[in-house]
UniProtKB/TrEMBL annotation:
Homooctamer. Belongs to the ALAD family. Its EC number is 4.2.1.24. The gene is hemB. This is Delta-aminolevulinic acid dehydratase. It catalyses: 2 5-aminolevulinate = porphobilinogen + 2 H2O + H(+). Pathway: Porphyrin-containing compound metabolism; protoporphyrin-IX biosynthesis; coproporphyrinogen-III from 5-aminolevulinate: step 1/4. Keywords: Heme biosynthesis, Lyase, Porphyrin biosynthesis. SMART domains: ALAD (SM01004).
Length: 327
């Protein structure tokens, strides 16, 4: 029998050679810690569909920011759960300079100045109908009217000290409008991370419970989020947002869309983040709790997959756990 000319197993035979030949490796620098903040007095409120993750009040969120700084996590992405009495059809609370998000930003920046704060720009946690923008009589989300509010929301966040504003609403033209608004308001160094390729997805379910929009949302978001059959459209979305002034872009959800992460990072040469969303978190957690998969190995492997696909960073609810596992 002839011997194989090449034995790829030679470079797998021991740890030292596997380490030496490994192409990509995730580090703490790849992590963005996704966090849900609430405006109540209780320190932590569990999220049923996300075992292990709580909604944090401002104090707890501030402690978490300090912890992120100690762990070397570069940035935190914050999402609000506000009292339903503060929600209305226009999402007006999103523009309150003393609302939950501005308060949290100020507290986090004071406690952990070395951690970047990323704020979602979208109205869904603030509207009584759970949509990301203003709706007309037929429930259609209005593009240009919504964009105007998003500009105001982004300026409120920047004013409070947000380092990155991250429009996640999928309105057309909002990145350019936000850039112009920020420049005019003097926030020339505030970055824009655009959720450029964001798909309609079953994997957002637990998040909607977390921010309290699940029960309010009557229809779906198919008239603004992308159809999961499309790739070319994702490239156009990203290209447009770069043209309009996005500094970084996001692909969302994460794992089922690694092909999009790879194409965007290879073809458009822009820092590309991937959002490992709530439903992906819940799925891993549910099987880990049953002892069907090993959680720690699984979450490290997943971050490795995002890096392999070309992501410059990953937004994840597991960032604190991962920071320890990766160091
Ligand atoms: C919408 C928004 C969504 C998420 C964050 N902001 C999706 C949606 O409700 O359509 C999802 C995050 C997650 O699932 O972890 N502005």
């Amino acid at each position: 029998m002839a011997f194989p000319a090449t034995r790829l197993r030679r470079t797998r035979q021991s740890d030292w050679v596997r380490r030496l030949t490994r192409e990509t490796r995730p580090t703490v620098d790849d992590l963005v810690w996704s966090m849900i903040i609430h405006d109540g007095t209780e320190a932590r409120i569990p999220i049923t569909a996300m075992p292990g993750i709580d909604r944090l009040n401002i104090d707890e969120a501030t402690k978490a920011a300090k912890r992120a700084q100690e762990l070397g996590i570069p940035a935190i992405a914050i999402f609000p759960n506000i009292d339903p009495s503060k929600k209305d059809d226009e999402g007006s609370e999103a523009l309150n300079p003393n609302g939950l998000i501005p308060e949290v930003i100020r507290a986090m920046k004071a406690a952990a100045p070395d951690v970047g704060i990323i704020c979602d720009v979208a109205l869904d946690p603030f509207t009584s109908h759970g949509h990301d923008g203003l709706i007309d009589g037929n429930g259609y989300v209005l593009n240009d009217e919504t964009s105007k509010l998003l500009v105001a929301q982004a300026i409120v966040q920047a004013q409070a000290g947000a380092d990155i504003v991250a429009p996640s609403d999928m309105m057309d033209g909002r990145v350019g409008a936000i850039r112009t608004g920020l420049e005019a308001a003097g926030h020339t160094n505030t970055l824009i991370l655009s959720y450029a390729a964001k798909y309609v997805s079953a994997f957002y379910g637990p998040y909607r419970e977390a921010v309290g929009s699940a029960a309010l949302l009557k229809s779906d978001k198919k008239t603004y989020q992308m159809d999961f059959g499309n790739t070319q459209e994702a490239i156009r979305e990203v290209a447009m947002d770069i043209e309009e002034g996005a500094d970084m872009v996001m692909v969302k959800p994460g794992l089922p869309y690694l092909d999009i992460v790879q194409r965007v990072s290879r073809e458009l040469h822009v820092p590309t983040l991937a959002f490992h969303v709530s439903g992906e978190y819940a799925a891993i957690q549910a099987s880990a709790q049953r002892g069907w998969i090993e959680e720690e190995r699984a979450i490290v492997e997943i971050i490795g997959a995002f890096k392999r696909a070309g992501a410059s960073g990953v937004v994840t609810y597991n960032a604190d756990k991962l920071a320890q596992l990766l160091s």
